[in-house]
Known about the structure:
By secondary structure, the protein is of the alpha/beta class. 42% of the residues lie in helices and 20% in strands.
Amino acid sequence: MELFExxxxxxxxxxxxxxxxxxxxxxxxGREDLTxxxxxxxxxxxxxxxxxxxxxxRPDATLYVGSGKAEEIAVLVxxxxxxxxxxxxxxxxxxxxxxxxVVKTRVLDRTGLILDIFxxxxxxxxxxxxxxxxxxxxxxxxxxxxxxxxxRQKGGIGLRGPGETQLETDRRLLRGRVSAIEARLKKVRSQxxxxxxxxxxxxxxxxxxxxxxxxxxxxxxxxxxxxxxYVADQLFATLDPTLRKVRIPGVGPTILADTVGFIRHLPxxxxxxxxxxxxxxxxxxxxxxITDASAEDRAENIxxxxxVLEEIGADKVPVLHVFNKIDLLEAExxxxxxxxxxxxxxxxxxxxxxxxxLLHQAMAERIAADWVDRWIVLPASVAGQLRARxxxxxxxxxxxxxxxxxxxLRVRLNRVHFxxxxxxxxxxxxxxxxxxxxxxxxxxxSYNPEAxx
Length: 453
């Protein structure tokens, strides 16, 4: 048992006073991480007053902690004027009700705590809908017969027949609200599908940032996009998906998506509720899996993210691992490659910007697997307009003006987009490719930009 230091917030009565409960279980029996629990509690805004830690071989079926420990918690609740008891475990509805009867105060399990944090963080209409859906699904299993004084199942003339208890009314209202939210989220999903189809038609690559919560995704997102996404040293600081269009050197116009952070044993109903958000990862050209390189349990964090990606069906999307916060390790930025020379890991610091150039390089390598990287010759009649489109669509690495007025460009861009631009200019791929870059670079005169102004 640990008594937390009384802070100013505790003395002034700001926030709810919480008693924390953690049971040290064997691996495979619902074991949770205590340090992560502390992060969740601090992110929730409650005031941790006292912590109860004990060891069991398996959870008690009735009270999870056992009757003796439950009585001990009840004494501490009264002694320290506790408002809520937080469990670092998922409780069944029956266990939650039984413990509340013993301790005489509100009890919240790990899932309920995460849901409460989500409710605080959601800022957009869509995010609030997703949180409410998850909360309602969680609540449906925890409705109890607390309204029996309002039962309408009474005898007597004119009152016989099927009635409806308040519990049944609550359930019906809940089901109606759940159906309404699901319908609205279905519309949101349809709108997202339209956006994805539009991006697909434009052949704009989508790069989705995924990773364990508090790994630095939003900091990296801001670094890459010059955006101002909310960043905090908290779990689930980002809930609402954010999309930004940026130009990645060697890739061209690219859509970056910042997504909700994952966590070990992320409740399945949360994954379901945030399906519309997480679907951004399914259509991505590349996933940037952000990991806190300084975390002691980074291997477990990586496994937790991989598990959720598999659960939503995104485990087949190409992944580039990004090990962030190397400034805390005093390490140098670098790219790790596999046996085939493919970039698989980038070590960087989103906070300081060290290694961002290496990330750009690795992203270009991974995205540009089916890209054109050649010299092309454009007839003078279409050179001006098509040159502008090629600059807009991708990277024009070099350009030179030939003696006959034709324009020679060294281009590097998505092949599908390249062919579409040629078709719009009524050109064929075979007609525009020139000699090898070495020959072209040796024999062509330098480019005169004034010729196209």
